[in-house]
Amino acid sequence: MEMRAMEDVGIGEDLTPALPPMAFVLHETAVSSNCSACFSILPPQPFPPINPNFRPNCSHFPSPTPLYCSVNCSSVDSPLHFSSGEIRLLSLFRQSPPSVWEDSSDLRLSLRLIHLLQKIGEIECPEASEIIERIGGLMTNREKLIFEESRNSKSQFSDENLRDCGDSGENSENVYQKIKMGAKMMAEARRASTDRHVNAEKKRDDFVLEEMVLYLVLTNAVEVQDKNGGAIGIAVYDTAFSWINHSCSPNSCYRFVSALENHQQSSLRIASYATSGRRHRYGDIERNGYGPRVIVRSIKTVQKGEEVTIAYTDLLQPKEMRRAQLWFKYRFSCSCPRCVVVPTTYVDYALQALSVGCTDNQDSSDSKIEKLMQSFDDATNDYLSLGDAESCCKKLEHLMNESIKPKETKSPQLHLFHYLSLNAYTTLASSYKVRASDLSALNYEVEKHKLEAFDLYKTSAAYSLLLAGVTHHLFMSESALVASAANFWINAGESLLNLAKNSMWDSNSTLKPRKCNDYCLVDTLEPNSTIPLEEIKSRFFNCIANMTLKVWSVLASESSFLRSIQNPIDFTWLASSETSMILSAEEESRLAGFVLKKGSPSLEASECDDQVRMNLVMLSVHCLRYGAMLSSICYGLSDEMYYNRTLEVLKELYGNK
Questions:
Q1: From CA 623, how far away is CA 500, in angstroms rounded?
Q2: Contact at 8 Å (CB) between 481 and 474?
């Protein structure tokens, strides 16, 4: 199945209206903070589920209990919570948590979907031997996952490519056993529910219906994110969204909106080219306008009749890791243009690149890289699992000095663009910020702590800027990375702005309003500007690159690894025959348009604090606006939001000057 554009579509245009979900649930971690009906933030006194058999008191329900922001939300969602068996499933999880299911979200969503599909007659209880490829038009993948031989999986993808695949890296036997256990729990929960369809079913031990729908959910459900990018739940949508295929170089993306939000509605501009004429009765599902809605939006030009594609996996992973994840989760081997092109694309080359000069044979290099991966995982685990940010920083800094820092060596060295390097920059930007925040909270009145926290904030900002620069370099060759580039530029801008506003700067220093010599973004670039996109990108990037030279030595001063980076934005200093061989003439031309202007002044040691701070402010607002401009391609109106915010920031720092 596939979806194609019904008309020509430009960059940054909605392809669908806000599509409502068929079924949705919050993750257990978000149940206590978000409304289970509309996904909005809960008020201080939330409302419990409404059930006539209980008084409205949250203590009568198993934990975690769905909570609501209003009586209306509770009255709409509560009936499904009880009739689907969800409340019983939560009770089973509390009594005896299954080791293979860390979160009940997939099971709860499956219960809700069974109930809704049975109400509209889209699903009946199948026989154990019955093969049902699709339910309501949505792929189940049950037969592939059950009968696919494990050796076929292992022959396509090596173990090291699955190290970061999580559950999707499990072998077929483990996945099947996990599904069987989950289906059994679902069947037990349904029998304790008030669903009339369950009472009509004969007692059986094979749980085929539960299995099939659980497989459908694992194949089709998408993770719902809040405005900060945090995962708060999962949802299943009908064929208008679920039939959109994957590509590692997609022409579209998607975003979530609340039914309560005001947003401009687009018409449905995509259609299925499936030959089957069967119509599914999704319109009969009682959705009541609740749940996270999804909007598909173009990130490239799409011609009439061209297939619309989105990404099912992280595009900043190397090719073999992406293909392995897609195989184990969806049971298809990706054959998109980015994956099959020969020679490999520049981005995929860079994400697995080793520094020039390595003379080890391939087997030796692979073995050493695998050990490095384990070391990086161990260091990151100190922060993510143990909460030890300081240990994580020390270990990662040591690893990066040994394995990434540019130097002459015959051992395999990770390139600055390697995907492990990008993961390290992300972790370090966050962990240094956490350390600084913790130190400030400990005893901010102590001068020593204030200075140390200030240095940690500087290093965090430096890694944020490096991550934005590296991602942007890759984005110049693969425009589908626009969402990642936008996110990292905004993060870098926020980090730099917080540093510029830090109280450790000389309290007597005064910031004088200053305009950008090349491009005064605040005065001339308003939302919905008619300036061509490529010109805007070029001007913004040139400004950012030149401003970075003036502050980089200050930002990088506390890290020996960062001090080895000559420029975190313009990487022409890393140029080699190895990269020039793989770049096409078109890519070289595109890169040339973003090369740093020559003759830009570097930061002198004698430059005073207010000049450094001024440069940080100007750099931060440029990063924010550039990130917002890229973000508007993916998400619509965020450019205007950040435009207004930059104006507020400048007024706060400069007053009314």
A1: 14
A2: yes
Instruction: For residue 528, give every residue at least 6 positions away whose Cβ sits within 8 Å of its Cβ, in sequence order, or none.
Output: 640
Q: CA 419 to CA 248: how far, in whole Å? A: 15
| Structural tokens at position 231 | 């995962």
Structure tokens at 442: 């400990």
Helix (H, G, I), strand (E, B) or coil at 149: coil
620: buried, middle or exposed (CB in 10 Å: 19+, 13-18, 0-12)? buried
Q: Is 12 left (phi over 0), alpha (psi -120 to 50) or beta?
A: left
Cα–Cα separations (whole angstroms), residue 54 to 48, 96, 240: 11, 24, 39
* 94-103 residues labelled b (16+ CB within 10 A) or e (exposed): eeeeeeebee
Short-list 620, 627, 612, CA closest to 652:
620
Question: Do 260 and 48 touch, CB atoms closer than 8 A?
Answer: no
With beta carbons less than 8 A apart as the criterion, state whether 634 and 486 touch.
yes
Whole-number pLDDT of residue 197: 57
H helix or E strand, kind and range, residue 425: helix 419-443
Average pLDDT per 10 consecutive residues for the chain, totaling 657 residues: 93 93 93 93 92 52 80 91 88 79 91 87 63 79 62 48 49 75 89 61 68 91 89 94 95 87 79 62 57 94 96 94 89 91 92 64 66 86 87 92 67 82 95 91 71 92 97 94 95 93 66 52 49 78 89 93 91 62 47 39 48 88 89 75 61 58
Q: Are 299 and 12 in contact (CB under 8 A)?
A: yes
Is 435 in a helix, a strand, or coil?
Answer: helix
Contacts of 387 (CB under 8 A, 6+ apart): none
Q: How many residues does this entry show for the chain?
A: 657
The closest alpha carbon to 394, from 379, 407, 416, 374, belongs to: 379
Whether 549 and 567 have beta carbons less than 8 Å apart is answered as yes
Whether 431 and 389 have beta carbons less than 8 Å apart is answered as yes
Q: By the 8 A CB rule, do 142 and 215 touch?
A: yes
What secondary structure letter does DSSP report for 229? Answer: S
- Angle formed by the axes of helices 638-654 and 482-500, to 10°? 10
Cα–Cα distance for residue pair 521/96, rounded to 1 Å: 58
**For residue 406, cis peptide bond before it (omega within 30 degrees of 0):** no
Exposed, middle or buried, 200 (CB in 10 Å: 0-12/13-18/19+)? exposed
